[in-house]
Amino acid sequence: MKKTFMGVRLRRLREERGMTQVALARALDLSASYLNQIEQNQRPLTVPVLLKINAVFGVDVQRFSDDDEARLITALREVLADMQSGPGGVGPEQAVSLAEIRELASGMPAVARTLLALHQRHRQALERLDALGAQLGDGRSGVLASASHQPMAYEEVRDFFFARHNYFAELDDAAERLAAEWGLQPGRADEGLVRRLQVAHGVHVVTAPELPGGAQRCYDPASKVLQLALGLEAGQRAFQMATQLAFLEMGHELHRLADGAGLSGEQARALARIGLANYFAGALLLPYTAFLQAAEAVRYDIDRLGHQFGVGFETVCHRLSTLQRPSARGVPFFFIRVDRAGNISKRQSATHFHFSKIGGTCPLWNVYEAFAQPGRIVPQLARMPDGRAYLWVARTVSHGGGAGGWGAPGKEFSVALGCDLRHAAQLVYSRGLNLADPEAAVPIGMGCKVCERDACPQRAFPPMGRVLDVDENRSRFAPYPVAVGGSPGGLANPHPGVA
After folding, report:
1. Does 194 score more than 90 pLDDT?
2. Which residues form the HTH cro/C1-type domain (predicted)?
3. Where along the chain do the CATH 1.10.10.2910 domains lie?
């Protein structure tokens, strides 16, 4: 553990418990002067002290994790870049430095989160103004639709899972217990699931040549018939049946978690329930303890785990990103799924990696290289602009099912799983890679709009708040800080006086 100064967080914990400094020092078996030095950031928060805090107060150590700090730093950089750009934005002379952002995220995380929440409200207010202006401009009357007051439902649900570090102990523990009670066997879980549906709920499972809207599962509560799409593999069938069992067996818990997430409307809550049901299904097919032990035994070899548990590459990757039980943590992974156009349809993070919300990802990322090598696992050492390095593995996956027939478009995605470089040696995919060489990592970013790598050969446009210096004597565009009062599009006119 590196030296971590978190005096403000420790003082906040003490204030929440209504304790004096002397009382906290006595509870932790420390001298009052030593505790005072920790709270004043004159001494780092060490592992022994952190373990004492966990033992005495039952506080999750994640509260003092530098991973959480890194998530805040990344989010703050994105928000501040957005605030600096556009009409009314602050100029470069008022820009907040990375050192100041680190200090805010480390010392005052609650203030940092409040700033992020305020920015989100600011963006929502701008969207409402734009929508109202469009209505008035068209001469229409009426009340502004309430939908424009809130972010999109799926974005709210993504933030909900992200805030929980993609781990739900309630569902994970219940799934592991029920898998044992029902006698589900790795690789043959579909047999036990069919039996459970029939015996406990009177549900009959049938195969349908084609389901409405290309669905993979369709349940009729009246007839108690569960239809599964023709062409699903055994693992996919098992996953769909496990998802239906989540609604039948865990419906109350799904509603409780979704209702307590602070989501804006029923559509978001319904999406959250679906996501939670899928989470339970994965935990049922891949029980926590058995799956973690198997993963560690094969050094997180995704294909071998898929064969052992009878599920596909994507399901294994998704499950690996959820192994964050406090008493038995796996490698903290980040999981993402994209299509060829760069649309992100799934993204989950068990730790600090932050996916950009402003748009676009990095074309140098191996998640896109995987499309050029379909079916093959493509490893990559990558380094972000903040200096953190990661090991990523990516592979294409195809989604079948249904009876599309000749000429029907298919579904192809690239699935990527990543972890911090300090965990890379635990993965079989690090074999042959020079993890100690800083030059071996490919420099990537979250996307051109928020990436400050000036010399990147793949840059599509300047970062927000910066423009292209058009120099007729050079063969390339070089970004430089924008002055306040640039053109409405964010690019200042390189030739003053020319319309």
Report:
1. yes
2. 10-64
3. 150-315
